[in-house]
Amino acid sequence: MGFLSPPATVDKREYWGFSFYDWANSGYVTTTGTVLFAPYLTSVAEKAACGFVGTTDNPCNTNLSILGLGVSPGSLAFYVVTVATLVSALFLPVVGAIADRLANKKLLMCGFAWAGAVAASCMVFVGGGRWVLGAVPLFIGNLCLGSSLVVYDSILIDIAPPDDRDTVSSRAWALGYAGGFLLLLVNLAVVTFHDALGMSQGTAVRLSLLSAGLWWGLFTFFPYLRLRNRPPRNVEVVRSGSLIRQSFGQLAGTLRHMRAYRMTMLFLIAYLFFNDGIQTVVSVSSTYGEKQLGFETQVLIATILLVQLIAFFGALVFGRVAARYGAHKTIAGGLVVWVLIVVAGLLLPPHQIVPFLTMGVAIGIVLGGTQALSRSAFSQLIPKGREAEYFSLYQAGERGTSWLGTLLFGLVHQLTGSYRPAIVALGIFFVIGLALLAKVDMRRGIDEAGNTQPAVV
Fold it and tell me: Which part of the chain is the Major facilitator superfamily (MFS) profile domain (predicted)?
């Protein structure tokens, strides 16, 4: 696999350890977060609210009562993601500050991963009308995923020099799509041939959810064994108090000095907008396909498989394009394509698989590339000693933890009763993100952060 091999300047053992955490968590992100769990939880919530699972011809229009508020069953999963991310806004920066002060980063990363894997595996028990039993593991899984990725993303700076980060990030992301593709392919077979296997479709879905948790937990041992620990560097000294108190002190210091890194903050704000759009499109796509367009679960899984396959090559291609034209311009081009995708989503006809697959191909081309290059571009703008802390802020908009997008999507659906205006409303995130990204001067930002200038940005 020469196209996935590490650059000459990167240690091979650490490169594969780093890359395989993308492989590990992508099983959960793809099977659970992207394809199966949101529509499954919606069906469980509909059964609790209405006594039956809604269809396009016979929708469930009764709300659940949660803390005295009426919540549409079709919006429940997106609200859970929203709440998880709001909690993350308080929790992840502290995780990042602690990670920057620890010599054992990999244990912190893998600890969160294993906790999330346990929560993900517990989704196997969700059934009947027990939507609470589904909402709680989804909340814990998303929070643990974000926490592990805070530490994981910061490790990119440790293992790759500036000129090789686009390549390492893109190839790791591509390997993640390969892992997600493989597990989802197996789960497609289980869900499709559930009768031949002697089980109901619900049981097949629950076993697939279990497989995603086990995949995440077991493959996390690979980075744990391959990555090495490094001592903290350039950490702001807080002379008294516990590790938690010292970490809050470091975070407060970073917040006070943010104005000195204007380009870093501008890039971060741009990313939070356009990645909210990306993550929301990904997380709602299966629900949109099932509830709005009338496709069966097998069609949705096959479509996501196609997206995963195309995204594998898309991430590699984006890495090569960035090596020639720079990550900044390549990301901007990808965002233009995302705007066209959400507009096309509004116009998709129901029960017509070819247009749906065509949109899936378009998503696959830009999905991995925009995210992988955003990670490597942001790494160039972070002051030394605060890598994990800055990536904790970055994770507020990372995959599976978007909140403005899922909130907007859920509200528009609740107000209109349709997912079509909800999907096109997401275009605003890409437009705002692109406008802010255009104002980012990468070379100025790298100088402000005191980092080495790569040959191409």
Answer: 263-457
